[in-house]
Specification:
This protein starts with 8 loop residues before the first helix and ends in a 14-residue tail after the last helix. It is mainly alpha-helical. It has 9 helices and 4 strands; from the N terminus they run H-H-E-E-H-H-H-H-H-H-E-E-H. Helix 1 crosses helix 2, helix 3 runs parallel beside helix 9 and helix 5 packs parallel to helix 7. The longest helix has 27 residues.
Length: 251
């Protein structure tokens, strides 16, 4: 099986755009087929894109074709729940899931900040790394650029480097409120997205991507930095760190 490690962000968007636009598939098909696309659709494109000089033109991909199955208006029945799955229900589930990921991340960030002093939050592990405060500013900038301006086609005035250069030592509560307001605005924007908007290609931060990928990219980026903030908090607090969740059962 071919690897996704060599895939650039740009080639991924190009492959995704090709599937959505040229394949003329519905939102339901894109979302149902998404787990299989990396193996059966994207990998041959990625391989050809990055290693075209290494692969003989006559060599065929070993990936089996994906049997496309269009979702009829009345929907499909889920074998696990017995409920009818429609494009509308998939759209609602996708939006709700992305919103839940953002809000859950904010709960975890707030839990960390409650354990830290202002000095802790502005502390940089070394001169080449960011403080937790800088990460809060960075997340607010990224979410605003991708999920608010990107989805609504507003003018983006972000100055990314300032997020990392800031050493103003503003109050942590102020930084958190800026991020909280940004996240809530982003959640509202996600919930406003229609099927047509999620499939429409737009340009965000020099990348051409549809609404589905715009949301997924920013939410994954957000959750990655949430985990970084948790790790930095654990390092700062050591044995005094308080976990947000501890399972009561063995599993």
């Amino acid at each position: 099986m071919l690897s996704l490690k060599g895939m650039t962000r740009r080639s991924f968007f190009r492959a995704k755009q090709s599937f959505t636009v040229h394949g003329n598939h519905s939102l339901g098909e894109c979302m149902l087929l998404w787990p299989s696309l990396s193996r059966a659709y994207f990998e041959p494109l990625i391989r050809l894109d990055r290693f075209s000089n290494e692969r003989p033109p006559t060599q065929q991909s070993s990936c089996p074709p994906i049997p496309l199955r269009r979702i009829p208006p009345y929907g499909l029945t889920s074998h696990s729940t017995g409920k009818t799955v429609t494009q509308t229900s998939l759209l609602t589930a996708y939006r709700s899931s992305m919103v839940a990921q953002l809000r859950d991340g904010m709960v975890k960030i707030e839990h960390c900040l409650q354990q830290l002093s202002p000095e802790d939050i502005w502390t940089r592990p070394n001169g080449h790394m960011n403080s937790i405060a800088n990460l809060l500013l960075h997340l607010a900038g990224n979410v605003r650029q991708w999920l608010i301006c990107g989805l609504s086609n507003q003018l983006d005035l972000r100055k990314r480097q300032q997020e990392f250069d800031d050493r103003s030592e503003r109050e942590p509560r102020e930084l958190f409120e800026v991020l909280r307001k940004t996240i809530e605005d982003a959640c509202s924007e996600i919930n406003r997205q229609s099927e047509e908007s999620l499939l429409a290609v737009r340009r965000v931060q020099q990348f051409d991507c549809d609404g589905l990928q715009t949301i997924a990219d920013s939410v994954c980026h957000f959750r990655g930095h949430v985990q970084e903030i948790i790790h930095m908090t654990r390092v700062l607090k050591a044995d005094a760190y308080q976990f947000h969740f501890v399972p009561e059962n063995p599993e």
